[in-house]
Design goal:
With 382 residues, the chain is of the alpha/beta class. It is 30% helix and 21% strand. The protein contains 13 helices and 19 strands. The structure holds pyridoxal-5'-phosphate (PLP). Pyridoxal-5'-phosphate binds next to helix 10.
Length: 382
């Protein structure tokens, strides 16, 4: 028997297209808006679901040298892709027991607590060489970072300062999606007061929303994530942020149903009149959120095509009655995220934010990377 050849990815139930040129353009643009001396890239959660092992080389080729992830394992997964002189930092900090691996790999921990600072210092003393890190201070979000008195204690401790050269002092904004929120300027003031304890050390405060606020928020090292991946970080859209993601789902079946017919689990949808339904090969197991049931829609042939009933695990039914009967056929693709279905609209229909839509993107999609398609094929074959 001849061995089976797997079907080409083009036959997948849904196709995700990721424009790496747009990621790079967004990185340049958001960096300029921030006014920061250097723009890093936050590539945690597999570059917000888009594939960090594709995104990091594209950004590195464009000159990005500093990368942030949330977990040490994410850093280890990417470290071979760093450009010469590049660095990768772990936002979630230094887990007890991670000191050896972190130091051996040359990963920078973000020191978030006194325990973490002292353990990193102690390990540097054991090794007899300085171990660089970033220090996070809590400027008002009460999530991660040392308190003002703790920052002062570290700043005034010559042993800590010698053992742990700080690459940056950082903090994180809680309300950067709303530039008018007074919490932003409160946090900026609190941050600057603590950063001043470490003269000459780079300051890093701005996520994507902070980059758009610019000015003093930009600091020395900007840390955008979301905007790189083509989503708008604040209510006031910046038209220069280019969309990155297109998601298309395939029509598996088309059927005519009479008035009154129900569709999907629980039969929560009923045909108001004779209707044409199409079933798509995408469901909540693909990260196509079940909360879109009854709210979301697809786009094809110039028409918005509403979902009919609940999203299933592997399929989604759409009502295509507004189209002529033969406008769509089995095997056709419809747009779920793209120019006609912006990610912000999808997020709002799902009752969530673009961050969650992106980081939920599923493992079963065929992924196309623009403009590096040939490169992907080579990597997949290896
Ligand atoms: C995720 C994260 C960022 C990036 O935030 P975006 O809003 O996606 O730009 C920056 N800094 C920290 C500490 C983060 O956790």
């Amino acid at each position: 028997m001849t061995p089976l050849t797997p079907p080409p990815p083009e036959l997948a139930g849904a196709i995700l297209t990721i424009d790496l040129d747009a990621v790079v353009a967004n990185w340049r643009h958001i960096g300029q808006r921030s006014g920061a001396r250097e723009t890093a890239a936050v590539v945690k959660a597999d570059a917000y679901g888009l594939g960090a092992r594709m995104v990091v080389p594209a950004l590195a080729a464009a000159g990005c040298k500093s990368f942030f992830v949330a977990h040490l394992t994410e850093a280890l997964h990417l470290i071979d892709l760093l450009p010469p002189g590049g660095q990768i930092a772990v936002l979630n900090g230094l887990t007890p027991g991670a000191e050896v691996v972190c130091a051996q790999a040359g990963v920078l921990p973000v020191l978030n607590s006194m325990g973490q600072a002292r353990r990193w210092q102690a390990y540097a003393q054991t090794l007899g060489r300085p171990l660089p890190a970033l220090l996070q201070v809590d400027s008002g979000m009460s999530r991660l970072g040392v308190a003002p008195a703790e920052a002062r204690a570290l700043a005034q401790d010559p042993v800590f300062r010698a053992a742990v050269p700080l690459r940056a002092v950082m903090s994180h904004l809680a309300c950067a999606d709303d530039p008018k929120d007074p919490a932003n300027t409160d946090q900026l003031a609190a941050f600057l007061a603590m950063a001043e304890l470490f003269p000459g050390t780079a300051r890093s405060l701005a996520n994507s929303g902070g980059c758009l606020m610019g000015g003093a928020f930009g600091g020395d090292l900007a840390r955008p994530g979301l905007a790189l991946y083509g989503a708008q970080p604040a209510a006031m859209p910046d038209p220069a942020i280019r969309p990155v993601v297109t998601l298309e789902a395939r029509i598996m079946q088309i059927r005519k149903v009479p008035a009154g017919a129900g569709a999907g689990y629980g039969l929560t949808w009923h045909a108001a009149g004779p209707s044409l339904l199409a079933t798509l090969g995408i469901g909540y197991a693909d990260g196509w959120l079940r909360s879109l049931s009854g709210h979301g829609s697809a786009f094809a042939k110039g028409h918005i095509l509403p979902f009919a009933g609940r999203i299933s695990m592997d399929s989604t039914i759409i009502d295509i009655s507004s189209l002529p009967e033969d406008a769509l056929v089995e095997g056709d693709l419809v747009e779920l995220i793209g120019p006609n279905r912006p990610i912000e609209a999808v997020a709002s229909e799902a009752g969530t934010i673009a961050y969650e839509i992106l980081t939920s993107l599923g493992a079963r999609y065929a992924r196309h990377y623009l403009p590096h398609q040939a490169q992907i094929r080579a990597e997949a074959a290896a």
